[in-house]
């Protein structure tokens, strides 16, 4: 059985009211420091953990922020955003709970299980869930509904821009016959298609050949894909992310294709392993820290009743290394 405040009161020899005042740090109460220390020590000795739901009910607000993620595999960008968002919210005394949403259960069941103060949505919310949140007085940041056409989790032009940035770098280095290495993960299909569109759009503007696309798994060398690109005269490959790019580098080594002498490779995300690859991987770095600061500032704005801040304007950038 869980330890209750009544158990703490009996063990300390004080009233439940006194225990409540001490544990909730109720202002305006006349409790001696000795009694306060006794209650706190007894609670700690018994392992008493106050109910977050009860605390929220007493205070009229929760100290919990829920971040709802779509069914995405979390990579370095999302991990960095969540890590920094946790730090930023902690400075305000708020806790971050991350929920990886699956379509098998409606989101409204989550609001019944926990009572968040703010919900940060990186995915679409059904309109009925948005209404339920707002009716419950729970603030919402970033989450549009399918009905209003917003998509907080994926900025289409930004994703296309990442592909364009890869192409711009490759063209500056003198490459003219590009290929695309994309992911087989259907959960990332929308991201992958947008980045592929960006590569194709930049190639069309530069009047270079339409790049052939190969699906590359990140768990094995992309040897056959490399051989196919070389046979087609491809001299550089824009990869969906660094994991795919590392598989392409491994495939080039296995196929005996020199990088970048015969085939240049550029990734995306700037994972730690990119600088340790052979050769070190040229990649695109996204502004994860700026994105996390913007989300934290948006949460603080809704809590304080202020307008949402403008989005981060820090651009993604090329990190040039030996692979191009």
Automatic annotation (TrEMBL):
Keywords annotated in UniProt: DNA-binding, Transcription, Transcription regulation
Coiled coil regions in record: none
GO molecular function: DNA-binding transcription factor activity; transcription cis-regulatory region binding
Transport found in the keyword field: no
SMART domains assigned: HTH_LACI
PROSITE patterns: HTH_LACI_2
Domain HTH lacI-type: 3-59
Alphabetized Gene3D superfamilies for the sequence: 3.40.50.2300, lambda repressor-like DNA-binding domains
Name this polypeptide is given: LacI family DNA-binding transcriptional regulator
């Amino acid at each position: 059985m869980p330890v209750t405040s009544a158990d703490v009161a009996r063990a300390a020899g004080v009233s439940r009211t006194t225990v409540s005042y001490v544990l909730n740090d109720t202002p305006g109460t006349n409790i001696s420091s000795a009694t306060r220390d006794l209650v706190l020590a007894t609670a700690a000795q018994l392992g008493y953990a106050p109910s977050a739901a009860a605390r929220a009910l007493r205070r009229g607000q929760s100290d919990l922020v829920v971040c709802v993620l779509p069914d995405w595999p979390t990579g370095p960008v999302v991990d960095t955003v969540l890590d920094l968002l946790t730090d930023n919210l902690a400075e305000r005394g708020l806790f971050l709970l991350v929920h990886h949403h699956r379509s098998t259960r409606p989101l409204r069941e989550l609001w019944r299980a926990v009572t968040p103060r703010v919900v940060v949505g990186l995915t679409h919310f059904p309109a009925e869930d948005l209404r339920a949140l707002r009716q419950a007085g729970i603030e919402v940041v970033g989450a549009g509904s399918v009905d209003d056409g917003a998509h907080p989790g994926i900025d289409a032009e930004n994703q296309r821009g990442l592909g364009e940035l890869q192409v711009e770098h490759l063209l500056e280095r003198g490459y003219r016959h590009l290929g695309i290495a994309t992911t087989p993960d259907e959960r990332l299909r929308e991201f992958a298609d947008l980045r592929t569109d960006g590569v194709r759009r930049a190639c069309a503007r530069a009047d270079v050949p339409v790049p052939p696309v190969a699906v590359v798994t990140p768990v094995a060398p992309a040897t056959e894909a490399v051989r196919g690109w070389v046979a087609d005269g491809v001299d550089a490959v824009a990869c969906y992310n660094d994991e795919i790019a590392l598989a392409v580098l491994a495939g080039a080594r296995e196929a005996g294709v020199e990088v970048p002498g015969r085939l240049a490779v550029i990734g995306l995300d700037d994972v730690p392993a990119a600088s340790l690859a052979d050769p070190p991987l040229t990649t695109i770095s996204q502004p994860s820290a700026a994105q996390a600061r913007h989300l934290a500032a948006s949460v603080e704005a809704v809590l304080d009743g202020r307008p949402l801040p403008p989005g981060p304007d820090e651009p993604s950038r090329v990190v040039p290394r030996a692979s191009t």
